[in-house]
Amino acid sequence: MRYGGNTPCVEIRTDQGELLILDAGTGIKRLGADLEPDGPIHILLTHLHLDHVEGLRFFAPLWRPGAELHIWGPPSPLHTLEERIARAFSPPLFPLELADTAASVTFHDVPHETWEIGGVRIDAHSVSHPGPTLGYRLSANGSSFAYIPDHEPVLGVEMADLELEWISGHGLAAHADVLFHDCQFNEAEYSSRVGWGHSSVAHAVEFAQRSEVGRLVLFHHDPDRSDDGVDGLVERAQELWDGASAEPPIAACEGMTLDLA
Amino acid sequence: MEGRPQKHLALILARELASQLATATFIADATGGLVFFNEPAEEILGRTFAEAGPMPAEGWASQFKLEDLDGSPLPRERMPAAVALMEQRPAHGQLWMTGLDGQRRLVSITAAPLFSSPTEFVGMIALFWQEPTSGDG
Fold this sequence. Notes:
The complex is a heterodimer. Chain A has seven helices and twelve strands. Chain A is α/β, with parallel strands linked by helices. In chain A, α6 crosses α7. By secondary structure, chain B is an alpha+beta fold. Chain B has helices at 9-19, 39-45, 49-52, 57-60, 80-86; strands at 24-29, 34-37, 65-67, 91-98, 104-117, 120-130. The termini of chain B are far apart. Classes of the chains: A alpha/beta, B alpha+beta. The A-B interface holds A 75, 77, 112, 114, 121, 123, 125-128, 137, 139, 144, 146, 154-157, 164-168, 170-176 and B 1-10, 12-13, 15-16, 19-20, 116-118, 120.
């Protein structure tokens, strides 16, 4: 497989060596196996759909005495983040309880205001996707990275008709150097999946172009999509892309490394 | 925030909902400013949103002449939209409304405050229904 088959997990390393992890999909298992952290690990969850948290239970540092984890996620009016995640750590879904983990784990609702972890300024905003869902913008040393993996930026209206401030997620993505954005569907597929909370390739491109990002990285590939199918989405995205000043879109793949310095 | 300011997601989704409704719908933000009204509301207001644009809190209520059912002027504190905004509770009422087109209509209004969390008030949505009057067919 050229693009990989794990569910979302993105490792962010700062110049200072600080580790931030975006989402805890199945990709986090492999990350955790190779990890020898010498400081706190921050996991920023966009939302709690299983494809974004199902790797957490298998994240080795969680079971390592002395490890320090901070898990950030969207607030909910009814239950704390810990209570919601604890559901995935309980029988019959899992044999162990959250209380059984060996690491020190602290749960945080993301704040409304910008906050900072290890020199990285972080903004989190609610974005359009079923259930409480966040997108993130990480900024450091003059570079910015926007991560909106599950997102339907407009629903039943034309993006072109909206002022920028009315487009979900725009505040996070505006002028980001790199944007990782949902591109689950091709245009034909999307027409029968309106309201599912995901984007067509046309949405992803239009959103990125209106946000004037430096580079669009197509993300959250449909699990049924073949590598050739993802290639087809990239070709379509590049066909739709008319930004002379920006890099043409590419698709995220397992193990991809981008340098934002 | 190093990106750009934008409307709260609850307002964005409310606008998208309103865009699909045949019921006149007005949306205000937490400051009370009118940030959107849909096409059916344009008929009541007598102007399109594209023409009128967003209006500050003190501006948009004065675009209408509102009267109680007995024809007396309706005080602001009894206007359902104002109740939803100022007291942050739902309100419903029936009243006479004269919009910019000069027509006097009997309307029912249901207004609800929008909270994105129990403590975060983000605005108000008001739905207007025109009621039949004795002069109607």
